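Box S2. Input/output pair 1.
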Amino acid sequence: MRDLNIATTDAPSMEPMQLSPFEALFLNTLECLKVRDSDHHIYSHTELWQLLAVSSKQADEFALKYAAYFYYRTRGWTVKSGIKFGADFLLYSKGGPSNSHAQYSVIVRRQDTRGTVDESWQYMFALSRVCSQVRKALIVCYVDRPTAKNAGGIHENEEATVPDLTEFQISEFLIERFNPNRK
């Protein structure tokens, strides 16, 4: 990997780039990004996972959402934060947000909550309505967590371990609100 060698005089004219923790971890996995701290220590992939999973305060949820993020990125989608629309992620087709609007809003849920009403019907209705108003379809992405030792979460007296993403199972459900006025 090559450093960009950007002169400090050029830095003020550059557009700032902000990566989500999921984007940074994904690019680090591909060895396209090195993350350094203020002392110029370069984080290994395992150290970066531990830093991000622990700082998220919900390491198990971080692992599930990263598994979903990884799933969509490896299928060619550009994945961005969906917080503006009440979702976990937005999916953009090739070209990303600079060329088109997101086609899908994604909420990530544990597989073991499938079939239960973990959110109220009012929440799902409201989310569906928001998606409809902004012309996005809603995907409920269920992530089946592997056994605890490979799950990448934090257990008592352990550090966060990098999960084996091949052991996560993903299932998706597309929810579209019926609108009789839409053509």
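Box S3. Input/output pair 2.
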Amino acid sequence: MKASIALSAAAVLAAKVSADCFSSRLGFPCCSSSSAEVWYTDSDGKWGVENDGWCGIPEAPSPAQCWSEAQGYPCCKFTSDVVFTDNDGNWGVENGNWCGIQKKNGNNGNGNLDDVTPDNQITLNGNPFANKIFYINPYYVEEVDGAIAQMTDASLISKAEKMKTFSNAIWLDSIKNMQSWLEPNLKGALAQQKSARKEVLTVFVVYDLPGRDCHALASNGELLANEGDWARYKSEYIDVIEEKLRTYKSQPVVLIVEPDSLANMVTNLDSTPACRDSER
């Protein structure tokens, strides 16, 4: 079979003339579908096999609104699953690479985030991570892009590009960052969920406990273990999180209390006054 393919490919390469359908000008018919299986690729295009003979796979129609090509990425051909949303539009992944989900009805499927309205209260049973699309944090993607810009190794760049398709938790490590990151990411995940028509899960790490990492020097928190900061923790941090979750009630959200904060306190109760103050 390999020898047959090689001989046929040689015949193809020797027959280059001009015509509208690239394989027709080479003496071969076009395949019946642009999604036909690719058996061989050369400078003319992609080749498939139909009726025991070579055929040229036609290009999928290029929509006038294939917006992602301007960013250097193709439009998605087979998927409509949204894994990331930014100001340009909705992004999917095909063959391990980013692709733009094509515009519909005059927009790119992203919609206006200011117009996103939550639907009915979601109910979760069992494993909250099961059968969910995971929200892609735009800040994380920007950080990876910044790292890629400094890379020269093609293999490393390819691996870093793939890393952009993986979700990660969003750390709410201060009152300011919680105010900056919580609602925009909830809103982005909701827009993605409405576009994909599938539940999109966002994971946040609750990481601003008073007396956090009480034995540490670099990761200790902004709030101390005293009555005033406990009141701030409740009113300016926890209550705000609760309010936003009640607003964005139609999407799955998981909150994780950063576990090292608690272990750091328990193991240093006797040696560190700040940890003794943190015990409640």
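Caption for Box S3: The chain is about 30% helix and 15% strand. Residues 121 and 246 are 9 Å apart (CA to CA).
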